[in-house]
Amino acid sequence: MAETKPSLSRDERLAARLRENLKRRKAQARALDKIGRGPDPGEAESSAESAGSLESGLSKSAG
Hints:
76% helix
């Protein structure tokens, strides 16, 4: 048999949904922080190397 819930106003239902959504998003953010969301160390090195090669190429052609 279906459970009867007390009649909630529209605002109360929306507030409850927002709280549930906030809890879900916080849990998701904690999980992402736990595994690390930063850029891969390999990506940072490769971008620095490519920037360095561009600078060295510019200085050679300018001279």
